[in-house]
Design goal:
globular, alpha+beta, single chain, 12 strands, 158 residues, Aminopeptidase, 30% strand, 16% helix, 5-stranded mixed β-sheet
């Protein structure tokens, strides 16, 4: 099933094999189309991926909804990240999450939610960490457990 998402890639002329220039911030990253997630390349190499889609497009998420609590099917969700080891520790998860939120908002999302863990209990980080979600402007709604939270970002804040 194809879900809403975004692909992000290397801006032309920013970096090429054998010659690596290091632009500031996201200057090296740009949108290149749509797909099943938010993909990033850094200097031509895969730098990370995260899923972002409307909750209603993820029927399997309903099976765990009792665990996660009530959620509007129109909310968008970020439920999975992957950052290769060689790209970790460079802020890529935050950049992926920020890009996912921008994409969701541009496509009508009013609320984006995620289910991150405390960093000490995030294992491989696939669900994200509470600290990264907070830095991206998400607020904790409730705790699923001592180690995991439901966090939301609102397009319009009151």
């Amino acid at each position: 099933m194809l879900v809403h998402g975004m692909a992000v890639g290397l801006a032309p002329g920013v970096a090429t094999r054998g010659r690596r220039t290091k632009p500031a911030g996201d200057a090296a990253l740009r949108g290149v189309g749509t797909g099943a997630g938010n993909h990033r390349l850094r200097y031509g190499e895969p730098a990370g991926w995260c899923s972002v889609s409307p909750r209603r497009t993820l029927p399997g998420l309903d099976q765990v909804s009792a665990h996660l609590g009530e959620s509007d099917p129109e909310n968008w969700v970020v439920i999975c990240f992957y950052v290769p080891e060689r790209q970790r520790g460079q802020g890529m998860m935050l950049r992926l999450l920020e890009a996912a939120v921008r994409y969701a908002a541009e496509n009508g999302a009013r609320i984006v939610e995620g289910y991150p863990f405390e960093a000490a209990h995030a294992d491989d980080g696939a669900g994200g960490t509470i600290e990264v979600f907070e830095r991206a402007g998400f607020r904790e709604v409730r705790r699923v457990s001592e180690r995991q939270a439901v966090m939301r970002w609102w397009a319009v804040r009151t």
